Amino acid sequence: QERVVIIGAGQAGGQAAVSLRQMGYAGEIVLVGDELAPPYQRPPLSKAYLKGKLDRERLFLKPYQFYADNKITLETGKRASKIDRAAKTVQFEDGTELGYTKLIISTGSRPRPLPVPGADLENVLDLRTLEDVNMLKPHMKEAHRIVIVGAGYIGLEAAAVARELGLDVTVLEMAPRVLARVTSPTMSAFYQLLHENHGVKVRTSARLMELKGDKHGKVTDALLGNDELVPADLVLVGIGILPNEELASDAGIACKNGILVDRDARTNDPDVYAIGDCAHRPLVHYGREGRLESVHNAIEQGKIAAAHICEKPRPMEDVPWFWSDQYDVKLQIAGLSQDADQAVTRGDPTTGSFAVFYFQGDTLIAVDAANAPPEFLTAKRLIAQGATVSKEEIADTSVSMKDIMT
Ligand code: FAD
C-alpha cells in the first residue's frame, strides 16, 4: 500500500495530513512529530495563551479523535533522525524505521541561540513551543524584572503580555529600531512609542555582551556593550529562528537558508516535499524565492504538497500575510515590504489606526495596517493583482479604500 510519511506535526504537517484526506488520498498517512502535543497553532503562545486567557486544548488544530476518524496515524514524541532516499525510509531516534512512497518534511524552525556567555543560565528561556510557554508562564508570575532580547514580533508581543501581567520590562534590540528586519521606520517608531507608553523600557542599538548569574546559576543581570548592567530575574530570548533543514541536507537534498522547493513544494527529489518554515520557496508575486515564517505559508504549502501528491490542480498562491497583536493594536500585514523603494503613510499614527503602504515604483507590494482592516483587505487584493496605485490617493484619507480599489 502507498504511504505518505510526514515528518514534523506542526501547522504545516498537520495541514498536509488533513488536506491529503480531503483531496481523496487513499493510502496510509503517518504524521510523526517530536513534540508531545498534536499539531497546534503557535500564534497564541506569545499572545492569549501566554496571558492565561486560552486553554491548552483550544490551541490544537484538530481534536485527537479527528486523526483516528480520518485514518491518520499520529505519532507524537517521536523524532526522525535520518532519511534514506535510496531505500525510501525514515529512521527514528527510538530505533524504528518507516518506508514511504512520498515524504513530506515539515520540521519547522528553532530559535536562534543567543551567542553570548551566560545564555545557558537558569531563567533564560525561549518561546517557540507549548512546552516553552508552559515553563515560561510560572516564571512570568514570579518574576519582577524581565529582559527581552530581540524586538521582533515575538519579543514585542511577549513584552506586551509581560506588562499586562505587571512586570518591569526592558527590551534590548541590537538594531537602531524595533522590528527593523520586517517593517518601515514609521511602523517601528509607532511600536516603540506604543510600548513606551505602556511602560516598557525599549533599548535600541543595545548590544548584549553577557548574561550574569548568581552562585546558584540563576540570571541576575544583562551586561550591555556600554558596561551598563540591566537587572533581570527572567530573560526571554527572541532573536529569530533557524530552519530545521539538517534532515534534508544530510540526505543530499538541496538547501539554502531552508530546503529548496518548487511551486509544488517539491524538493530536488521528486518523492520528497518540504513545507512551512523549513522551506525556501518561489514567491510568485515577487519574482524571487524566500523563506516565509507564517501560518498562512504553512497552511498554503501544506495544501499545495497534498494537491500535488493527489494529482490535483495546484491551489492558488496567495499574497503572503501575517498578523501581530500587541495591547489593543491589531497589526495586519500583506505582502513583503523588504523590496520596497518607497513607503506611504495613510492616516495618523497618533490615532492608533493607520497603515503604511509599500511601493516598488508605482506598484503596490505590501501593506502594514494597524487597526485598519479595510486598508489591509483592499491592499491585499491590489497586491495580488500587481496593481499600480496612486500614492497621492493612498495618502489622502478623504479618498476611501473602495474608491482606490476601482
Ligand atoms: P512548526 O509549527 O514549528 O512545526 C514543526 C514541527 O516539527 C515542530 O513540532 C517540531 O518540533 C517538529 N520537528 C522538527 N524536527 C523534527 C524531527 N526531526 N522529527 C520529528 N519532528 C520534528 N505566524 C503568523 O502568521 N502569525 C502570528 O501571529 C504568529 N505568531 C507566532 C508566535 C510564536 C510564539 C511563534 C513561535 C510563531 C508564530 N508565528 C506566527 C509563526 C507560525 O507559528 C509558524 O510560521 C508556523 O508554526 C510554521 O509551521 P511549521 O509547520 O512549518 O512549523
From TrEMBL:
It comes from the Bacteria. PANTHER family: APOPTOSIS-INDUCING FACTOR 1, RIESKE DOMAIN-CONTAINING PROTEIN-RELATED. The lineage of its organism: Bacteria, Pseudomonadati, Pseudomonadota, Alphaproteobacteria, Hyphomonadales. Residues 321-404 form the Reductase C-terminal domain. Keywords: FAD, Flavoprotein, Oxidoreductase. This is NAD(P)/FAD-dependent oxidoreductase. It comes from Ponticaulis profundi. InterPro entries: FAD-oxidoreductase/Apoptosis, FAD/NAD-bd_sf, FAD/NAD-binding_dom, FAD/NAD-linked_Rdtase_dimer_sf, Reductase_C. Residues 3-302 form the FAD/NAD(P)-binding domain. Pfam families: Pyr_redox_2 (PF07992), Reductase_C (PF14759).
